[in-house]
Hints:
Chain A is an all-alpha fold.
Amino acid sequence: MTTIDPTTLWTVIIGLAIGSFGLRFAFIGLMANRTMPAWLMRHLRYTAVAIIPALVTPLVAWPSVTDGVTSLPHLLAALVTLAVGLLSKNVIAAMASGGATLYGLLYLIG
Amino acid sequence: MPFTTTKSAFWKGFRDGAPFILVSGPFGLLFGVLAAEAGLFVHEAMIFSLSVFAGSAQFTALQLMQENAPVLIVLISALAVNLRVAMYSASLTPYLGAAPLWQRVFAAYMTVDQSYALSVVQFEDAPEMTVPQRMAYFFGTNGLVAPVWMIATFTGAVLGSQIPTSWGLDFVLPLAFLAMIGPMMRTPAHIAACFAAIVTALLAAGLPYNMGLIVAGLVGMMAGAQAELWFEQRKLRLEAVQ
């Protein structure tokens, strides 16, 4: 695993601190009486639900642990996590089932 | 039950927010551990959690920095994950917008999933609440969640530096993200957005500078927005037929 360069780390921390606060303050602080166009709100509703799967898909398909080789235990653990999350709507239960699947399969397959 | 004082409103928020420490505790702990595994010092992980105070954005940034993604991509992606707080801010404005500026500054910092979700329901249910009572309730919802998040990050960062790399925690972060996806699937449009993002992420994985992530995110957002329009129109047509 590569170490993170300190300049990068601090740029990201400061940038995110300012950016996150900006996003939160944008309306309650500054735009009290203005509304955003409906088309923009409609797209913004789906940012997290698009970005997080987009981020995680390559990590599941080509895990860094196996140097990018698709691996059955990782794939199954991912599917179990997703399925339990969908059915139970419980983040902790989903993670625990996925973790148990991964370590269980890695132990069995070796 | 009507509120008689701002104090009782604060404690109502405090009690309503308490169960959420079961989420913010483990996730803060996980962030601390993974930050330590990624080579961050305890004080770096703490400043990260304290200044950004947005779990999913912090996890995103941590993952991408480890992949050596360009700083701009890290910032855009992490802020995109956090764009929903801008919507929370917009939707809280009618209730809290009349409060003094210094209170709104603190309220903005404290705008997270839990405080938003609890407060909007409370404010809708009790329209008779005054602005100071609403503000007190809002801060109350964070009364436990915020300190627990910070303490958990600290604990995780201290523990994480002692966990050997042979434990293979590399895949824990992907699992954490996957676990967050399930509860987000509230409508068919959310599922469409997620599915489109996954397919595009697989196809666009070869793009340089982690641009595949941005492209897949944008395609997912457009798919979600289009699906929402389509489902709305279909509902209108069905109602017109009946």
